[in-house]
Amino acid sequence: MDRIQAKLQQVWGYDELRSPQREIIECLLADRDALIVMPTGGGKSLCFQLPALLSNGLTLVISPLVALMENQVQELTAKAVAVGLLHSEIPAVQRKQTLQALSNRQLRLLYLSPETLLTPAVWSRLCAPELQIDRLILDEAHCLVHWGETFRPTYRRLGAIRTALIEHKPIGTKISIAAFTATADPISQQTIKRVLQLDKPAEFILNPHRPNLQLSVRQIWTPRGRKELLTKFIDRYPRQSGLIYVRTRDTSEELAAWLSARGDRTVAYHAGLSPQSRRRVEGEWLSGKLQYVVCTCAFGMGINKANVRWIAHFQPPVLLAEYIQEIGRAGRDGQPSAALLLACEATGVLYPEDRQRNRFFMESIDRYYHLATALAQQLPASGDVHQIERQFPQSSIALSLLHSVGELAWDTPFNYRRVKRDKSPNWQPLKVQQQQLFSGVPNYIKSAGCRWEYLLTAFGCKPQSPAWRCGNCDRCLAQT
């Protein structure tokens, strides 16, 4: 504990750790596997960054978003921590320097995406026998569940990484794995543990309730009504920092232009912007030059701004996990904050925009199932993923889906083996699980009870008593 306290003071300038940061740090220093579900703003990154500085080898941090990685790396670099960053947008010179530092064993932490981790140039260096790797950290681990089947199939291969790395290391090498997220319901927790092959993991599951965050949902009947309610909400917080979440790049651009025309200090933010533009927008919002940003889910992860007073969802998110993540940007300083969700009227007859958007999303998922079914009988019984992808475009998605339903195993991160070859894969269990995930937001919108009580139950955190209510959401306030 003396070493932990000394390093905490030296690098971060903190005198004390929050609970259960101390327990998590001790767990990681003991080389145990772990699953950590901790609310946004709870100090998750410190829980794996500090152990990395107290260990002898390298800590790999596998992270889903460029903005998330870059923000954490910038903060660590400012603290003179030996940290590296690799992703597809890194300039060639910087990439070469980072790879050289990796080979020279000069890094304590290396941030990279799942896809970058498994590129030949990076993987070959990680497998070097002389490179000591202490642990693998999967940051924002819920992305493994929500994106792993279709949008980011590389996530499904991460469970084979530890064994493959250890095979190249000296006898007796141990590498622990810790998964961190702010949002994982019981189903997602089981999926994360199974896919990553966690070995008797210590579990730290914290209640996501934020008593200072007032939740409300408003039904709207027309596109004009949606904008009117949004502006009324924004105008309640003059000169106070906030965020507006939308679901598509086009919507972010159109809405930001409309709001700017009325004199608001705002811009659009989405993954289609250049890295330089994204960094500029983040900096201007953090400094207060921009009051708020109209953004997709690409914004916010890992960006630490304590005084965000409000969050508006112009359109409902697809998943409750996204909603919890995004409202969690507000009120990190513990001061009263508000989150408004705008949703089309319940029937979807008079204003079907939200329903149409969800239907389009579900149809996209169904197309992946059809693709996987068609490819299932053509794919060899075993093979190298890169060779198979060259022969069968989009086969990576099919392999991921087959792995999800237990019909395929990854012997290494690059080599698969079909466990069984049914005539037609049974997608039903996976579809049922996905339907449960996708029904969360519509049910939340329609729920007549306490908003926080619904969220706590959905994420497996039972309220203190059956009669418990937050007393602060729109439902509770309407009953007082």
Secondary structure layout plus pairing:
Elements: H1 2-12, H2 21-29, E1 34-37, H3 44-53, E2 58-62, H4 66-78, E3 83-86, H5 92-103, E4 109-112, H6 114-117, H7 120-126, E5 133-138, H8 142-147, H9 161-167, E6 176-181, H10 186-196, E7 202-205, E8 213-220, H11 223-235, E9 242-245, H12 249-261, E10 266-269, H13 275-287, E11 292-295, E12 310-313, H14 320-327, E13 337-344, H15 353-376, E14 382-384, H16 385-391, H17 395-404, E15 408-410, E16 415-418, H18 428-438, H19 440-446, H20 451-458, H21 474-478
Helix pairs in contact: 2-3, 15-17
Folded structure, characterized:
This protein is α/β, with parallel strands linked by helices. It is 44% helix and 16% strand. A seven-stranded parallel beta sheet has the order 3-4-2-5-6-1-7, sandwiched between helices. Strands 8-13-12-9-11-10 form a six-stranded parallel beta sheet, sandwiched between helices. Helix 2 packs parallel to helix 3 (44-53). The longest helix has 24 residues, at 353-376. The protein is globular, with a radius of gyration of 23 Å.
